[in-house]
Amino acid sequence: MINIDERKILKNLFSYILLIVLAVVILVPFFIGIWTSFLPTADILKGNYFSTNISLTNYLDAFTKTPILRYLGNTVVVSTLIMLAHLLFCSMSAYAFVFLDFKYKKFFFALFMVTMMLPGEAAIIPNFQTVKALGLLDHYSAMVVPALTSAFGTFMLRQAFLQTPKELKEAADIEGLNHFQIFWKVILPYNRISLITLGAYSFLGAWNSYLWPILVTFSNESRVIQNGLKQLQSEETFNNWGMIQASAAIIVIPTILVLFIGQHYFKSGLNEGAVK
Predict the structure, then answer these.
(1) How far apart are CA 269 and CA 267, in angstroms?
(2) How high is the mean pLDDT of the chain?
């Protein structure tokens, strides 16, 4: 008979084996892509993935022979603006739904939730017509304005704000703070982990956006990295698979940095919360 301790050990062993298998499935293609970015195109075409002819030539070519730096700059600007807009507008709307009393509050919040049920593709045509009528095509604002707020972000922060101790709000009221002061000095600092999470989520979502930017941008002046890579693949100078892999690796680096930075602050916030 297997006792309880042995069952626990077998259960943990099975869990670790499953996690290792999943990690291998996810990470192996990633590392293969990174490795091939250092290989010459000739070796890649021959399937010689264990070649020792590794160099940084593909990366140098990507930076010097393509407008990838322009694409990266465009993407950083657009993603940062969308992230900041989400943090501002979603936190303000979440504060209103939690701490303000107004007529039909539940009804308006239900409308927010309804928009989450609609696929993003359903709004493409009306959004495109609006952006075109405003003369914003092929500009940063064409990508930023339709994404200034997020129903999911409002819902997420509302749930976080609901966990704020009532004593904090009551103490702020006793001190005579107005709503803006309570929002800025009490609610936002207390819920910074949720804000960091939403910021990382919004930045990565904007960074990986593909369909909408390809519809509203037509030149390198405003084209973002995801569409820029696709554009470069169709050009004669980009029939270089080593350079394609190098460009793909360059695209991934900022997202990894955002995840690591977000994780660092998330853990710091949890440790501070545990101490308190």
Answers:
(1) 5
(2) 86
